[in-house]
């Protein structure tokens, strides 16, 4: 099946001779959540802006929903949803009025605004002016606005910004539901915990280039290491030794600890923060 997004050797420069994106390649399948991760200024948002159509004059190949990005006209936005990092609403209108206004722009039938507001905990604020909303409330409104027309592809930039953990969990569940119905999701975030729990695959962008790509689990194993803590008896006393996860089968000290009367074994897997630090330092070198 043709991926929802396919990018090959994408380049983009805001200033001639200085590439903000330099040879990035990746794909997003239908029914998949892919996260673009990396430090501020790495080029993540630039990639999204090219895909959405806010930036032109790029190099490389970019195909979205089976068509070259440059061949799309206004009908593109009938099939995609966009939730930017900064809230973008009519502040003098209420939440419900905003959603009804944006729903009127689409040819396809839209979802019930009240149902969407309820899903993200904004039912009680449906008739409040958006000017009174906190940053987190506006970000939730951003998201449901992007879902109004049942898009095939979602572009999300920092989707849980400004939210407390409970509300963020609701948003994560809603994004997961979009994946389950076959929607492709491309998100950028600095929240590595969010990416680890939500993304099927992640791609680290550092200095405009792709520094690493894969499932969170595979990247953690490849770059983060991990440890095994073994409490065991030796010479009549209990001691705890720590071993790296890699190469345990040939680690004589580890095998000796197992033979010495094990009281407990605990493993500690690395997280994406360790992967991030490893890839960032590697790219800088």
Describe the structure concisely for a colleague.
This protein is an alpha/beta fold and 285 residues long. The chain has helices at residues 44-52, 95-103, 113-119, 135-147, 165-180, 192-198, 216-224, 252-259, 272-284, and strands at 5-12, 21-28, 33-37, 59-64, 67-68, 80-83, 153-157, 184-188, 201-206, 209-214, 227-234, 237-244, 262-268. It has two domains: 5-220, Rossmann fold, CATH 3.40.50.300; 227-268.
Protein model, in words:
The chain is an alpha/beta fold and 285 residues long. It has 2 domains: 5-220, Rossmann fold, CATH 3.40.50; 227-268. It contains 9 helices and 13 strands. The strands form 3 sheets. It has a 6-stranded mixed beta sheet, with helices on both faces. Strands 2-1-4-5 form a 4-stranded antiparallel beta sheet, covered by helices on one side. The two termini are 38 Å apart. The model has no long low-confidence stretch (mean pLDDT 90).
Topology:
Layout: E1 5-12, E2 21-28, E3 33-37, H1 44-52, E4 59-64, E5 67-68, E6 80-83, H2 95-103, H3 113-119, H4 135-147, E7 153-157, H5 165-180, E8 184-188, H6 192-198, E9 201-206, E10 209-214, H7 216-224, E11 227-234, E12 237-244, H8 252-259, E13 262-268, H9 272-284
Parallel strand pairs: 3-8, 3-9, 6-7, 7-8
Antiparallel strand pairs: 1-2, 1-4, 4-5, 9-10, 11-12, 11-13
């Amino acid at each position: 099946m043709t991926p929802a997004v396919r990018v090959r050797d994408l380049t983009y420069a805001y200033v001639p001779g200085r590439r903000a994106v330099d040879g990035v390649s990746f794909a997003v399948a239908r029914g998949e959540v892919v996260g673009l991760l990396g430090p501020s200024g790495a080029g993540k948002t630039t990639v999204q802006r090219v895909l959405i159509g806010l930036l032109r004059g790029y190099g490389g190949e970019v195909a979205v929903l089976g068509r070259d990005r440059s061949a799309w006209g206004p009908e593109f936005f009938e099939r995609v949803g966009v939730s930017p990092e900064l809230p973008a609403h009519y502040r003098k209108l209420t939440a419900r009025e905003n959603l009804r206004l944006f729903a009127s722009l689409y040819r396809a039938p839209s979802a019930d605004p009240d149902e969407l507001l309820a899903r993200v905990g904004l039912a009680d604020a449906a008739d409040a002016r958006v000017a009174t909303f906190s940053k987190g409330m506006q970000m939730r409104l951003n998201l449901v606005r992007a879902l109004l027309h049942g898009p095939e592809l979602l572009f999300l930039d920092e989707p849980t910004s400004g939210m407390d953990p409970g509300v963020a969990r609701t948003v994560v569940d809603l994004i997961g539901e979009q994946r389950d119905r076959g929607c492709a999701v491309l998100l950028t975030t600095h929240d590595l915990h969010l990416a680890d729990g939500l993304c099927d695959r992640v791609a680290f962008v550092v200095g405009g280039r792709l520094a690493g790509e894969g499932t969170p689990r595979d990247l953690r194993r490849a770059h983060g290491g991990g440890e095994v803590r073994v409490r065991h008896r030796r010479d009549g006393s209990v001691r705890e030794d720590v071993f790296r996860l890699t190469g345990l089968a040939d680690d004589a000290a580890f095998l000796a600890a197992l033979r010495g009367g094990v009281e407990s074994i605990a493993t500690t897997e690395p997280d994406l923060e360790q992967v991030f630090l490893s890839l960032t330092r590697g790219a800088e070198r």
